[in-house]
Amino acid sequence: MGVKLGVVMDPIESITVKKDTTLAMLLAAQKRGWVIHYMLQSDLYLDQGQCRATIQTLSVKDDEKDWFSLGGKTDIALSELDVVLMRKDPPFDNEFIYSTHLLEMAAMQGNTLMVNRPQALRDYNEKIFATHLPQCCPPVLVTRRDDLLREFHAEFKDVIFKPLDGMGGTSIF
After folding, report:
1. What is the pLDDT of residues 106-154, one digit of tens each?
2. In 3D, which of 80, 4, 84, 1 has the Cα closest to residue 39?
């Protein structure tokens, strides 16, 4: 039997198929024969110290009109899965934080690989994290101050302004 992959993500019926990286990962996993188990954050729970979830098997297709089908719901301990991907898009809110705590408990309860590490998801904003590798980045300024943003724009002319908690091109100027 293939790898048992769990994915915690946004509602799959609401994704933007042509640019969703989670769907691309799931297509690649399915091509390798992996069995995909889909769940929302609201499907995660802790029962007597064991992290569990209501899951559905998921089949995906590279088709913008018909990209997924779901199987029936079942309940499992996350420790029964080989890998769990946490792919929930922002907002980074309390529900997200609580979900990472539950996933961290699941990681401690077995050999399930959590991708990405739940604590890292809480501790590192993905846009700020890139600044840890300055040799790989263009000039970067992280601020909420208008005056510094204007100075940065005056110096570099062609700039991109992104919110730290955005995703999918939202509020990018």
Report:
1. 998 878 999 988 988 888 877 788 888 889 989 989 888 999 999 999 9
2. 84
Angle (nearest 5°) at CA 162 between 101 and 158: 150
Scored b (16 or more CB within 10 A) or e, 118-134 reads: beebeeeeeeeeeeeee
- DSSP secondary structure letter of residue 30: H
The structure's pTM equals: 0.80
Closest by CA to 10, choosing from 69, 86, 80, is 86
Strands 35-39 and 4-8: parallel
Q: Work out the end-to-end distance of the chain between its first and last CA atoms, rounded to an integer number of angstroms.
A: 47
Q: Enumerate residues 6+ apart whose C-beta is below 8 A from 169.
A: none
- CA–CA gap between residue 102 and residue 54 (Å, rounded): 14
Pair 118, 87: CB distance under 8 Å: no
